[in-house]
Predict the 3D structure of the following.
Amino acid sequence: MHRYFFPFLLLIVLGCQQPMPEKPASQSTVTTDPLPSWRATAARQRILDFVTAVTDTASADYVPPAQRIATFDHDGTLLTEQPVYFQFRFVFARLRAMAPQHPRWKRDRLIQAALDNDVEKVFSYGGQGISKLITIAHSGVTTDEFARSARNWMRTARHPTTGRPYSEMVYQPMLELIGYLQAHQFKIFMVTGGTTDLIRPWVEEVYGIPKEHVIGSRYKLSYRLSDSGKAELWVEPAMEFFNNEENKAIAIHQFIGQRPILAVGNSDGDIQMLEYATSGVGERLGVLIHHTDSQREWAYDRQSNIGRLDKGLDKARQNNWLVVDMQKDWQVVYPFEKQAKEPAGQDTLVH
Amino acid sequence: MHRYFFPFLLLIVLGCQQPMPEKPASQSTVTTDPLPSWRATAARQRILDFVTAVTDTASADYVPPAQRIATFDHDGTLLTEQPVYFQFRFVFARLRAMAPQHPRWKRDRLIQAALDNDVEKVFSYGGQGISKLITIAHSGVTTDEFARSARNWMRTARHPTTGRPYSEMVYQPMLELIGYLQAHQFKIFMVTGGTTDLIRPWVEEVYGIPKEHVIGSRYKLSYRLSDSGKAELWVEPAMEFFNNEENKAIAIHQFIGQRPILAVGNSDGDIQMLEYATSGVGERLGVLIHHTDSQREWAYDRQSNIGRLDKGLDKARQNNWLVVDMQKDWQVVYPFEKQAKEPAGQDTLVH
């Protein structure tokens, strides 16, 4: 599988930038359908109308390309976040790889729970527990070394319930949306609570998003010259910035310097990003992906510990944000459904 | 002057992206000369050779476009930094505009010195003094309000010795270099000790660099909803990140996520950025602009309080960085020399 992993991903990306009409849809304009995995619902129409309004030079809502900034959350917006955030899986795997060099970890119950893959027990330690584990798994290496381990993990890791590579657990309709926006000269940024350095090494291959457009959580770095005079950056065991809620809006300003005209998220952690985007002058669109499909993906919102979407649903009503219903609005969820040429929903997930 | 300020700048930018051969140079390939304001010296040749090596697909040193990252310092590298950094001039002007609302400032000698435009006296307070003034001038407003004041100042401010707009005090050879690199699919980032928010509002017009490619010093921000429910970011009176020396390499990783293959600076504050860039695998180029021209610009290096280049000159020798001699390597320094069609050096600066 590993050998054709990247060419395969490239195909997905290229495929979504110039979508090929493999599957005749119900519309008459099949050959130019930019969003073939979206059903012909009001959600799809609202996205198309928005893009037309801001890109048509004759439109009152026209926005020049330099200002066509779109920000996307990652977990649960582009990638399945159930039954556990992919980053936690990376952390557990990395701790297992590091464990032989750390015999003292045997006496640490939290770390031991992670090494045993006991997610429930790790969660019982609350936010501080998982935060400690993430820090251990990220620090004490150079940024170059960390990038290598992130890339290798992404090549080999498998989703716990489907057994598929994580790169296949991305949402096909969102790949198409990214490609559609890029074809209309939007600049796509990923604004995620995940750590930037875990995502950048493979983000171009998987999503067609440039490395420098990933804005995530980050650790403190220190600059050192090696014995041979080579400049290196070391990851220190201290989180510098946790990119969630209000910090997402702040990071957007610090990194991009202008309000997005389109922001897409799926949980309460994305509320401020959507507020910040849609508070700007002119035509704006805020989008929340609502996980409603217990057959093809997962169904969860107000009560979930992962990707909770509670206040966000109320805010969406107040602010006229678009709520995408995954079950109703998406004809296909994952790329492999499309490739299998089977009717949507036939790929069963055991969970 | 104000009304045709931006169209004029746009002309410069467009002009440097597709340079017009107004001035026959000594080479035979006049019509395709990408760097007409550079003399035919070894410095110019080394830059051309580097770009050819990394962009020719048949070359052993070929670098794919996604990795063609080039970072440029600002003050003294793209813009004249003498007799005082442009940011200090902005700060003094902004304090004067704010003063009527702050009667207590009358009792503060440091602020009073700034209001009197007494640069020497302000400098006598050391780094902490200027740092306090910059903080006062930047904070207590929303990022949107600050952007407006930065844009307005840039439109109206004049260089203290030439009386020209700051946008005309940029180096024509560097505009050409940026355009030349962009034409070869380089991504150009500005990595500056100046505050990001002061530069972004006009960086596209002046340099053709996108807003999101400015990486500078930054202040802490807070997120608030206004009474009408509009999301706003407020600048707090606390510097969060001073982007100089080691922090330049760190910020490059946090914002860009890969080592530049080309880095250009002019002072000791740029040493780590050049070390970080040139420590990478493959063909790399580190460049220092050496201010050697007391006639057309200023001549300063090891002893200067502004833009000191001391250790950098030694590092350049050790690391084989290119040192550009402004007097010998540049045929033209400022855009207006070119436009005036006068022999270079005839525009006298009084200083």
Residues 337 and 347 of chain A are 7 Å apart (CA to CA).
